Amino acid sequence: MSDNKLIKAIKEKGKTMEAEMSFFGHLEALRWHLVRASIAIVIFTAVVFYYYDWIFAHVIMAPSKPTFWTYRMLCDLGAALHRSGFCIDKINIHLINTEMAGQFTLQINSALIIGVTLGIPYLIWEIWRFIKPALHEKERKAATGFVFYACLLFFLGIMFGYYVITPMSINFLSGYTVSTQIQNLFSIDSYISSVATLTLATGVVFQLPILVYILANLGILTPKFMRETRRYAIVIILIIAAVVTPTPDMLTMTVVSIPLFVLYEVSIIVAGLVEKRKRKRHEEVMS
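Predicted structure:
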């Protein structure tokens, strides 16, 4: 009896050690995926740092100039509608640096932010490579194009934040005054932080259909539930629009809210497709 117990204990210990080795093996694999993604981000950051003068003048500071694409399009729209109020000829923004090493740390921090932004698609791809082997064949087919659509939505959000939300916010906030006795002098850190937050936050918000796709596959969300809670979703979207846009004017909030409403409706369609596929799979198993 004691020999049987000993053999059983050894077998159980062997299974436990095998499971632990498998767990640490997965951690090791994940570590190398993250290392490769980090190297890519470092490379992007180094490239941005090298070409920083051009990037600072033509990308970072572009929304603060009346020649920016968004302002020119608004002016053209005003001309087409015979409305002169659409043109923005001047932006009253004056940037200052208040720290000794401020401009040096500014270059490092902003280069890192842009490097991370450019490296996110590769990070998503590496995470997908880590998850993919654990999926069944049908699950892999169902998730085909996941990386492409996640990156596409992210950069669409980045472009929307950069070309729509950021210039509208800068134009409003730079000209807003409580009193004529107070002069607006913005620190360069505040400007960089505002531009980065507005663009990156919008890129994250545009991942809504991807999030809904994952939750629908897990059975947490259904298209019926999303349709029934649409009125609450509208309130949440308006709150998100108010948080994302630092300007209190209704025009900016409306411009931000419309794409979010569209994303929500697209998410309902995505959840419906997932439910339809799960129903079809269930019928195939039952037949």
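Summary: Strands lie at 95-96, 186-187.
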